[in-house]
Q: What sequence folds into this?
């Protein structure tokens, strides 16, 4: 009887291996043959799941951000904490995730820069994937304003843009400078958001 293959599990295994290869070899020097070899699969098998290494990165961004957004949405609406404390928790978790996965984050930034040189703007893909997080922040801020957790005259659009900028700049700082102590970044976000907290 033929062995049944869990295609989603295999796809994730290819993805994890590819990210390890990208982090170790750099995106430019990585190829599907090396990824296939380290997965213990043939190159044609890899092609059944991904047409090229660029598609692997798109899938990585989609998979990781999808899981993170689900986790944050579940937490945001299940918690009884002050809304600003919820947002601070989410921001801190994103920063911790970036520090914990520093090599992958650095590799992702390398890919973005390389693809930009080649004429592909990876930024729009990242922005599209993070749009859900911005929507979550806006919804939380509106909810918090209605509940009396935050000041009634706060600019929800502006605060959301600031939160996103602070989290993204923290991530880029880790990727470019290799800083592994996120305390300053977390404190900055916490102080900024606490200003609006009632």
A:
């Amino acid at each position: 009887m033929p062995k049944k293959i869990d295609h989603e599990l295999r796809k994730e295994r290819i993805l994890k291996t590819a990210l390890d290869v990208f982090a170790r070899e750099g995106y430019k020097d990585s190829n599907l043959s090396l990824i296939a070899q380290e997965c213990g699969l043939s190159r044609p098998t890899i092609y059944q799941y991904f047409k090229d290494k660029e598609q692997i990165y798109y899938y990585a961004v989609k998979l990781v951000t999808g899981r993170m957004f689900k986790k944050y949405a579940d937490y945001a609406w299940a918690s009884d904490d002050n809304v600003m404390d919820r947002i601070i928790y989410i921001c801190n978790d994103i920063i911790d995730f970036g520090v914990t996965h520093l090599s992958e984050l650095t590799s992702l930034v390398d890919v973005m820069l390389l693809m930009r040189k080649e004429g592909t703007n990876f930024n729009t893909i990242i922005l599209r994937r993070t749009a859900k997080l911005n929507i979550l922040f806006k919804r939380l801020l509106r909810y918090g304003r209605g509940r009396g957790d935050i000041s009634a005259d706060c600019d929800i659009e502006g605060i959301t843009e600031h939160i996103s900028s602070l989290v993204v700049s923290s991530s880029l700082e880790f990727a470019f400078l290799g800083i592994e102590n996120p305390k300053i970044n977390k404190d900055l976000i916490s102080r900024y958001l606490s200003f609006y907290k009632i």
